[in-house]
Amino acid sequence: MVKRDSVLTRVVRIFETFEPDAPALRVTDIARRAGLHVATASRLIDELVGHGWLRRDPDRRIRVGVRLWELASRASPTLGLREAAMPFMEDLHAVVGHHTQLAVLEDREVLFVERLSAPGAVVNVTRVAGRLPLHASSSGLVLLAHAPADLQEQVLAGPLGPFRRTTLTDPARLRRFLADVRRDGYAYCAGFIDEETTGIAVPLRGRGGDVVAALSVIVPNDDSARMQIPALRAAARGISRTLSQ
After folding, report:
1. Tens-digit pLDDT profile for residues 220-239
2. Cis amide leading into 20 (omega within 30)
3. Which tens digit of pLDDT belongs to each residue from 1-30?
4. How confident is the model over 106-139, as pLDDT tens digits?
């Protein structure tokens, strides 16, 4: 007998069809992406729209509803982290003038939970609720450097896909870089994702001194980039103090 997916599993598959580059989809696209019959997807979507978890636009495209965002935000495990970090992030952003970001470790990726930007800021591929591989960005490298040893070994075992030629794809080089991050207290990544930008990240520590998140800035890839490190570290100390209380 073929085991059928539960209704809950089908609903989860529907929600997982939405991505940053595809926030609104037609019912047929959702059905195809979720691997569901169109009639089944349509029925479940109608129910979810009725509960406010999904929303139907005037052009009949479907997107995640405000009700789901409300519930997720209210119960988010990152809520306390974001509240503690935001005052310091705003001060840091005023100094940096480009991008200031907050990220956490999620599975084998870095998940960005907050970001402050400015008009005319340098290119930045990250976005709130967006993910990147741990080895590809300054935030990910900080989190990886302080991750459990078994996770580090899993990532080092690959595959280590490149974003640019400067991305750390050699396990030996990556291992040395992680050791430098632990020694220096920050990750400095010039041109790792975009040749015109530099990402710099530092760890944020909670109670007991464990690293719980990464704070980063994305600035122009020029001689002034390293001048942002003292302000970044000062903000991290303030956030860590707040988190440890």
Report:
1. 999 999 999 999 999 999 99
2. no
3. 445 789 999 999 999 999 878 899 999 999
4. 988 999 999 999 999 999 988 888 899 999 999 9
CB 216 within 8 A of CB 224: no
CB 110 within 8 A of CB 103: yes
Q: Confirm whether pTM is higher than 0.70.
A: yes
Whether the Cβ atoms of residue 198 and residue 189 lie closer than 8 Å to each other: yes
pLDDT, residue 3, reads 56
